[in-house]
Amino acid sequence: MFDNLSENLQEIIRKASNNATLTEENMQDAIREIRRALLSADVSLSVVKSFISNVKEKAEGENVLKSVKPSEMLIKIVNDELVNLMGGENKPLNLTGNPSVIMMLGLQGSGKTTSSAKLAKKLKNEGAAPLLVGCDIYRPAAINQLKILAEEINAGFYTLENSKNVVEIVKSSLEYAKTNNYNVVILDTAGRLQIDTDMMAELLLIDRTFSLNEKLLVIDSMTGQEAVDIAKNFDEQLNITGVILTKLDGDTRGGAALSVCYSTKKPIKLVGMGEKIEPLEAFYPDRMASRILGMGDVVTLVEKAQKAFDEENTRKLEEEMLKDTFSFESFLRLQKTMKMFGSIDGLLNMLPIQGLNKDDKQKISNEGEKQFKKIEVMISSMTPEERKKPDLLNSSRKKRIAKGAGVSIDEFNKFIQQFEMMRKMMKGFGGLFNGFGGFGGKGASNLAAKQAQLNMINKANSMKNKYRFK
Questions:
Q1: Fewer CB under 10 Å: which end of the chain, C or N?
Q2: 294 φ, ψ (degrees, to nearest 5)
Q3: Is 267 helix (H, G, I), strand (E, B) or coil?
Q4: Residue 361: which pLDDT band, with cuts at 50, 70 and 90?
């Protein structure tokens, strides 16, 4: 998401950094380019006008024009305005009820039913006991889909067969939840192809009959500017409490995320990636702004790493790196752990790597995934002893392994050379995992994560020349 906007803004800032000073003239040029970048990202015109007005007001101040590093001031101004545009700060779900009740809203095809299951999985991972309730009395297939998804994630499911009374279904589900110790009830309401009177009347009936903790509007992020009208209509009728953006990985423009929050003054609380039933992720405006400007999102990276790296495995890997005993077995363990981070493309977006465009990321991601699979086959063709002791690989052993893996001897030798270089790099990066596993507790603190970011950047810079990274 935001690939086009991110590339354009980074290019604008790069041009600004070439100026020794920031004058009113080149500042106007930068602001004009920022306006174009936002419009091409499908951000609504009213939002663009407000954004540009705020940036212009701050950028033309005396302190900016006379600053030592004007490009850095421009980055800060744009970053701050992006954060404000997307809601300012993360707004967690309100789960104070017993049970807490969340009503899912949205048009048909927005991903509402799938998002309900993803939300249930997220809450389940956090220790809650969610109950998914099928409230779509018009589409039995939607209820069946929800039931299948509930079974897949091992969450509770409830509906009243053949009932056409949505209030009766909700009332009965709340009684069922209390009896069976479910503390969060997720109502998957009916969607329509478009907003209509009957649809709103039904939702209003639920809203006025029951005490709801959250009314979450699910919006397909690829909808574009139409998402603003949808959000406004739902909010005017139901006073929504927040938004869930789906298919964030499929939208390269990102205008919906920037426009919906500003237009409704309601926070984006959660986001969904892909079609697999992976937990929804909390939306952090400051982290997203950092990604857009190419500064990475190390806080989220650290949080993911804490979940992926258990303390014992982290300590063992770091010890192997520092003692130069990093083996093929170590590599497989590391690769397995890294898969828990998600795709390589997603990982690249969280790292502070500026100047890497969408095509480069896609190429690295695709080639990386292919290479990882090929490496697994090559290592699997080794004996257990060879995996533990890379130095055992002589000429005859290499030929045998290459043949077993279905690769040429040249390709296998190239892998061995890359592995040896990686072992040296790993030794240099040995202390990096302290930034991942060494924070303690379940959540990474911003301070610790920022320190991890500094450690990562410093180590990367120190290794860049040595290994000629580009």
A1: C
A2: 75, 20
A3: coil
A4: low
* pLDDT > 90 in the chain, percent: 28
SS3 content of the chain, % helix, strand, coil (to 5): 65, 10, 30
Per-residue pLDDT tens over the stretch 279-307: 888 888 888 887 777 665 555 655 666 55
Cβ burial of 43 (10 Å; 0-12, 13-18, 19+) is: buried
What whole-number distance in Å separates Cα of residue 222 and Cα of residue 253? 8
Would you mind telling me the total number of residues written for the chain in this entry? Answer: 470
Residue 166: both structure tokens together: 């949505």
Look at the pTM and tell me if it is higher than 0.85. Answer: no
349, 361 in Cβ contact below 8 A? Answer: yes
Domains defined for the chain, CATH in brackets? 3-85 (1.20.120.140), 100-292 (3.40.50.300), 298-467 (1.10.260.30)
Residue 142 has pLDDT above 70, yes or no: yes
Distance separating alpha carbons of residues 323 and 320, to the nearest angstrom: 5
Phi, psi for residue 123 in degrees, rounded to 5 = -65, -35
